[in-house]
Amino acid sequence: MTAARKLRIMTGSMSNFVAIRDVQLVYGKGVGVQALDGLDLDVKEGEFAAVVGRSGCGKSSLMKLVTGLLPPTEGTIEVDGKEVDGPLKIVGMAFQNPTLLPWRQILSNVMLPFEIVDEHRYKVRMQRAEYEIKARALLNSVGLGGVEKKYPWQLSGGMQQRASLCRALVHQPALLMLDEPFGALDAFTREELWDVLQNLWMTRRFTTILVTHDLREAVYLADKVHVMSNRPGRIVATHEVPIERPRRSETAFEPRFLNIVQSLREQIRAESSATDRPAAARDAS
Amino acid sequence: MTTTATTKKTKKKASSLERAMPWLVPAFPWIVSVATVVIWEIGCAVFSVPEFILPRPSRIAGVLISAADPIWFHSKHTLITTLIGFALSVAFGLLVGIAVGSSRLIYGGFYPLLVGFNSVPKVALVPVLVVWFGIGTIPAILTAFLMSFFPIVVNVATGLATVEPELHDVLRSLGAKKRDLIFKVGLPRSLPFFFASLKVAVTLAFVGSIISESIASSEGIGTLMVRAASDFRISLVFAGLVVTAAMGIVMYTAFAVLERHTTGWATRRVDVR
Amino acid sequence: MFNSVVRVAVAVFTLAATSVAALAQAPVKLVLDYAIQGQQSPIVLAADGGYFSRAGVNVQVDRGYGSADAITKVATGAYDMAFADFSVLVQFNGRQGSAKLINVFQVYDVAPMVILALKKSNITKPADLAGKKIASPPGASSRVIFPAFAAANKIDTSSIQWLDVTPQLRETLLMQGQADATTALITDLAGLKHLNISEDDLSVMRFSDYGVNLYGHALVTTSEFAAKNPDVVKKVVKGVGEALKASIANPDLAIAAIKKRDPLVDEALERHRLDLVIKNAIVTDHVKKAGLSAVDMDRMKKTIDIVTATFKTPSVEARSIYHSEYLPPRSELMLP
């Protein structure tokens, strides 16, 4: 974290790090599928934002737009004051599938961003040892201290996802994008990883956008939870989560926590019946 | 309760056979081969099959020993032309495979040409090669190359084209260039396909060499077999066939072993779903 | 019930039909020594010009892939008869140690085998071949018999570098200079002429001029087939004889027959080939006087001896290999 950023956070004078204005996204040729329509979203620097909604509402498309992997059909997306017109280089991404490279050991996987990002790619060859120290420290902090030399298929799903998070953060990106990262894990592992992520975020304070269908997860981790409507998606509401950190598993049973979750759930249900679309059977828990 | 008991019972049955004869599994291929040879020998004797139709294995073995020098001389020649042609295939196949697999433009432009070319029987090309390059080694190397490069191209291109989009997304979001995508993700990901194609390609190269030799050459196991056939020395023809088969097996196995060593990770991938 | 009745009826009918078909005469299968060119046209004429049917036999004539291959095919029973070189037959019998194949009609009075070289390579006598590159198909009669030529002219065969080629490439390699010489039949001159190399550019060494005067191509079959089907063999021989006479009198007739089979045939080229083989192999002075297949048994013995000596197989009686009992009366074999 740079000194300037620290200052900005402490004085509370954070500007919008991510600003999405009136974005439309249409897939396919011809008439196409309108994935997003009139989407507005603001995320302040250092903020942890969550986006929730039913499956298929366009949350993953939102991810691709913010990181510049897809251009919007209409509207603007700004990150750090600049308009996005191609893949950003200050982002870390993690998906539901850990997508670790199976032919590399864990340490080598985590070091991958160093080999690609312009700032480090030439230095990493000369000063590999220094970079390795950073990677190892990060792996340690998430509890993967002894597995640097192992291959991805030798680890459990939860451990792979932790490694994936490390890879997303090793180059100290200013923005972390998470697309349902814990969706494939069992309930116990999921809650473990919430704490892992929370710790990381509290130490490094990167701006985060977490896309998830799990309302409890959103409320546990985020400062603000944005509710997305069904397709064509747009943000219909934003709920603040004024619960102080660090949040613990007990926190998730407190009335104030459950109230927020409940109001989110009702809102999403209302959304479904309002737009009269055949709602997906999957219930947001 | 009953189900568990039954499963336990069948499991025990299988392992008792293996326990009784644990050597059976690795020994079985040898048993089958030896049995084939024995049946062949007895069959020829019992039915008095004339030698020029089907020689007996004992005769073939005799010829292998008595004609060992010329057989070795010619086999060596074929082996060398095969390996050189194959090496050319690997180099060319990798380059073209990468080009075709990583660019839609090049893919569209060259694939029809490659497929069309591959459909031409190489037997028809050999006389042309002989006229252009002279008789002997060069047409054999070229035929070996022409027959074997296509599977390599296809496999490398397929490997590159089937990389999971998320892998690409992760790298692209870091600002990876096209080169990074190919060398850090595409090619390593394609290695299993590549090595799988090598097994096939080396045997095709071998066939190509021999085809070329049987049309126009002065050395090589193909030449030996054609001469032996016109000399009515059918045992020698079969000896040549045996040597050819043996060389083919050795080459295939060598690359199968190489494949296992270098791509162990591919056969153990765990899909996190 | 009705279903099974129908099924049985169909089975019975099929069985009956196939038996009837089997009883009808299956064609005699005859394989040529090579692809269908001018030299082979009289035999094709015999089939397609009605000579076989007039003689009372149904013959299927197919192209071959060298005399050695043709003889092997007859020996295995894949074909009943062949038109192939006699010396190769003797060699085959020698290797098998039995009189498996027999000669029933001597077509070429002389085997027109030659060594061809470009004049500029200065190969004018057999000794010049030592140390040279000779292009030749391994199964061609001129290659098979070359050791006899070498023995008769004291050439060291180990000094020769053989370039094995398919017959089509032989002339090309000679022309390009990749080969110093080639073994061939006299008919090759036509092909070379087609490539604009005339006889003046070539040095031609006929085997018959250099101590290897052999009987050439003949109609061959297995002794078993002849013993089981003597009438069939006689009819085939008669048909070939008539067609030969017709081709000698009017070569265009034979050429027309092969053109009908393959519209891509170059009539001029094939006519030239046929003329060469008629002049050099079939209609010799002896044949003009004595008629077709008028075999001099002493000369035949000499042929057999040369071949057995070359391949170190035991010598055999001429009469065990050449069987004249299938020939039509001598009068029918005389040329007008």
Main traits of this protein?
heterotrimer; A: 285 residues; alpha/beta; Rossmann fold; 2 domains; six-stranded mixed β-sheet; four-stranded antiparallel β-sheet; 22% strand; globular; disordered C terminus; C: 336 residues; D-Maltodextrin-Binding Protein, domain 2; five-stranded mixed β-sheet; 16 helices
The counted number of beta strands of chain B is 1
Average predicted local confidence, pLDDT of chain A: 84
How many helices of chain A? The count is 11
CATH superfamily of the largest domain in chain A: P-loop containing nucleotide triphosphate hydrolases
Biggest sheet descriptor of chain B? none
Would you kindly provide a written description of the structure presented here, covering whatever features stand out?
The complex is a heterotrimer of chains A (285), B (273) and C (336). Chain A is α/β, with parallel strands linked by helices and 285 residues long. The two termini of chain A are 35 Å apart. The radius of gyration of chain A is 19 Å and the shape is globular. Chain A is built from 11 helices and 10 strands. Chain B has helices spanning 2-20, 24-46, 57-66, 68-102, 104-119, 122-133, 137-161, 165-172, 178-215, 221-230, 234-262, and one strand at 216-217. Chain B has 273 residues and is mainly alpha-helical. Mean pLDDT of chain B is 84; it is low at 1-12 and 269-273. Chain C is globular, with a radius of gyration of 22 Å. In chain C, helix 2 (41-48) crosses helix 11, helix 2 (41-48) packs across helix 12 (251-261) and helix 12 crosses helix 13. The model of chain C has no long low-confidence stretch (mean pLDDT 90). By secondary structure, chain C is an alpha/beta fold. Chain C contains 16 helices and 10 strands. The longest helix of chain C has 22 residues, at 2-23. The interface between A and B is medium-sized, with 33 and 24 residues.
